[in-house]
From TrEMBL:
Pfam families from the UniProt entry: Ppx-GppA
UniProt protein name: Exopolyphosphatase
PANTHER family reported in the protein's UniProt record: EXOPOLYPHOSPHATASE, RETROGRADE REGULATION PROTEIN 2
Ranges where the Ppx/GppA phosphatase N-terminal domain occurs: 27-301
InterPro entries linked: ATPase_NBD (IPR043129), GppA/Ppx_hydrolase (IPR050273), Ppx_GppA_N (IPR003695)
Molecular function, one GO term: pyrophosphatase activity
Superkingdom of source: Bacteria
Similarity-based family: Belongs to the GppA/Ppx family.
Length: 348
């Protein structure tokens, strides 16, 4: 046993992950991922089925067993915000507690994106240099995406859109069987959502970079980064996108060695990127390996003062609150007073 060892568990819409690290050395001791079907259940039926609860509990029991082998005394277990959408979410959390002993923490969407952004910043080389130019952080979750804009090193804007690839797939699944040109239908649906976003987005940002993050982006890694390093150009993306658009899903699944579940989310995600590239005219896309579980570990290292990020994400929260206040035309003197007291009580 070592007091420097720490375990993080995340339960997502499509997988559950355990990561154990040595906090002092910042080295990974164990990494385990198990597939679950939570997202499909929620978007199809509005609740998590009993079979899925059992499947998830068995996976988490395996994680707990592994943690015991390492004699882990400190850990944190969280569930992504999309799981709270299930009508039986609290029942599921209690069943997991009874079967595994784990006290799952529900993350809000804001907490989830905050952790993911910190992990991306920690794992992306030259992050501070990148955000000095127009940069959009695109966090792709199964149910929604978070678009966060940086320019001149500062946070500019962030917005959540219910446009995650799994949600889109399930919403349009029935229509897919009825139409001969599903790609056009999908493009119209996604474009309508991006158009709404563009109305609120900052107009004076000249975009250079996209940083793509998400808990399960294996399909992107296989399809778009197959022969590239950590980034691709807009032209390279467009060429591969055209190939994906005209190739049957079964052929793509075989070529990239992906399950149908993964490959069926590739087109919605690729189309989303295409529309964002069209709106922003960004020049390159970087793929971050950072997962939510890494965000949990980064947060713990910051709490222990063994890691300091060069970018201040807490200040991003303050800026975001200011922007919301301006949008709703609140009393500025009152807002400034509230900000002063809040920072004193919660941050300092």
């Amino acid at each position: 046993m070592s007091t420097n060892w720490f375990a993080a568990i995340t339960v997502g819409s499509q997988n559950a992950i355990l990561k154990i690290i040595d906090m002092r050395k910042q080295t990974v001791l164990e990494y385990i991922k198990a597939e679950v079907s939570i997202g499909t259940d929620i978007f199809n039926r509005g609740k998590i089925g009993l079979e899925t609860v059992e499947e998830t509990s068995v996976a988490l029991e395996g994680f707990v067993s592994r943690m015991k082998e390492y004699d882990i005394t400190e850990s944190r277990a969280v569930a992504v915000s999309a799981i709270k959408e299930a009508s039986n979410a609290e029942y599921v959390r209690e069943q997991i507690r009874l079967q595994t002993g784990l006290e799952l923490e529900w993350l809000s969407n804001s907490e989830e994106r905050f952790l993911h952004s910190q992990a991306a910043a920690n794992g992306t080389p030259n992050f501070n240099e990148l955000i000095k130019e127009g940069t959009m952080l695109i966090d792709i979750g199964t149910g929604s995406i978070q678009l966060t804009v940086y320019d001149e090193g500062n946070f500019m804007f962030s917005r959540n859109i219910k446009l995650g690839p799994l949600r889109v797939r399930e919403l349009l699944a029935e229509l897919k069987e009825r139409t001969s040109n599903f790609a056009d239908l999908l493009e119209d649906f996604i474009f309508s959502k991006i158009r709404d976003y563009a109305q609120f987005a900052p107009k004076d940002v000249s975009y250079k970079h996209f940083i793509l993050i998400g808990t399960d982006l294996l399909f992107f890694k296989r399809a778009f980064w197959e022969k590239a390093e950590d980034k691709i150009t807009e032209a390279y993306f467009e060429a591969l996108y055209a190939h994906i658009l005209e190739t049957p899903e079964k052929v793509l699944a075989k070529k990239y060695e992906l399950s149908f579940d993964s490959i069926s989310q590739l087109l919605p995600s690729a189309m989303l990127l295409k529309e964002l590239l069209k709106v922003t005219k960004a020049e390159e896309i970087l793929l971050s390996d950072a997962e939510l579980v890494d965000g949990i570990l980064v947060a713990e290292m910051i709490r222990r003062k063994s890691l300091t990020l060069t970018h201040d994400f807490t200040q991003d929260i303050v800026t975001s609150a200011r922007n919301i206040a301006l949008r709703y035309m609140t009393d500025q003197k009152h807002a400034e007073a509230v900000e002063k007291f809040a920072i004193h009580l919660l941050i300092n």
